[in-house]
Specification:
alpha/beta; two-stranded antiparallel sheet; 3 domains
């Protein structure tokens, strides 16, 4: 029999079908340790599951995926129900759970989920925290600059023309009169000082997280992080895309497809061509793009390639796409060696 699970933040809905597609039962469970165990026992009451299809194994279904794997139950990632099914059948948790089970039965666009129980999951957690700190610091700095534009003239004159670091120092050093906050000048000084302190603290936090991330990436994947053009953040993005179980990627071309750098055939009749792949993990695609731009600036080989392809009539976007594809091949080879070292 097969099982499909529609995942949510507080509840999971599961459906069990036979190998001939007959719905046996559908039921809802809590997203707690006890709920996971109840779901596992409930599945086994109906027999030995060939596979369990979960929608969202890297988000709401991550904890359940780890639990089922620890109980030797095969788990696969299923795509969300297509729009045609939604229009004809409707949408509800039982319907989505049954659709997930039928997707497993039909073996329709299934993929192996990330395990999420190794050093790559640790890297992902650190990168999420650092990215959040960087975004918040940028937002605070933008708010400082925006507030200065509309600040009273005396305050604008005092803060105008400073570098970012000097501007933060000046805002933190402001001494408003807290007994006269009805005065726009004093209120603006309080706001600027608060925003500047927040930005400074967030930057310190981001720097500390970057140190942790750099050390962990270097220990986990020394060959990958040593590739020209890859820094700790871009290398981390590629590691996160692959996950803790790289064996789910069958080949170098599957990695390129996952990163959105594999050309898509678009031929018809006597016309033979390929088009840009707009799918894949866009964070991994961005990481490869950043690395290629760095290589074009610092690598003689990359610059010579770009010069040769330009002479052949290729545009710079086309050259970048080609180099991203070549870099994906290099990264995959390094990743494979790094993962092999982790497991030996």
């Amino acid at each position: 029999m097969y099982c499909g699970i529609d995942t949510h933040a507080d509840t999971h809905h599961a459906a069990v079908i036979t190998d001939t597609g007959i719905l046996l039962e559908s039921r809802q469970f809590d997203t707690t340790t006890n709920g996971y165990q109840e779901l596992t026992d409930w599945i086994r009451q109906h027999g030995h599951p060939i596979a369990v299809g979960i929608e969202g194994t890297s988000s709401y279904g991550a904890g359940l995926t780890r639990h089922l794997r620890s109980h030797d139950i095969a788990v696969v990632e299923v795509p969300r129900p297509n729009r045609k099914l939604r229009r004809n059948v409707g949408k509800s948790d039982p319907i989505d759970a049954e659709a997930a089970a039928r997707a497993v039965l039909a073996r329709n666009q299934l993929s192996e989920p990330k395990h999420g129980d190794g050093p790559i999951e640790a890297i992902r957690a650190l990168r999420v925290a650092r990215s959040s700190a960087v975004k918040a610091a940028t937002a605070s700095m933008n708010a400082v600059r925006s507030m200065i534009v509309t600040a009273p003239e005396s305050l604008r004159t005092h803060l105008r023309g400073r570098t970012t670091t000097a501007l933060l120092d000046a805002c933190i050093a402001l001494e408003p009169d807290l007994t006269a906050l009805a005065d726009p000048n004093n209120a603006t000084m309080v706001a600027l000082r608060s925003l500047a302190k927040r930005c400074r603290e967030l930057r310190r936090e981001a720097d500390q997280l970057k140190k942790h991330l750099t050390a962990l990436v270097a220990d986990t994947a020394p060959l990958t992080s040593g590739i020209l053009g890859l820094g700790p953040d871009t290398a981390a993005a590629l590691l996160i895309t692959v996950g803790d179980n790289p064996d789910r990627l069958r080949s170098e071309s599957s990695f390129a497809h996952l990163c959105g750098v594999a050309p898509i055939p678009a031929s018809s009749g006597n016309t033979h061509r390929h088009r840009l792949h707009r799918g894949g993990d866009r964070r991994a695609n961005q990481a490869l793009h950043t690395a290629v731009v760095v290589r074009l600036k610092y690598s003689d080989v990359a610059r010579a390639y770009a010069k040769r392809r330009t002479a052949e009539g290729k545009s710079m976007p086309e050259i970048l796409r080609c180099q991203k594809r070549y870099l994906a091949r290099e990264v995959f080879s390094a990743l494979r060696e790094d993962y092999r070292a982790l497991t030996t």
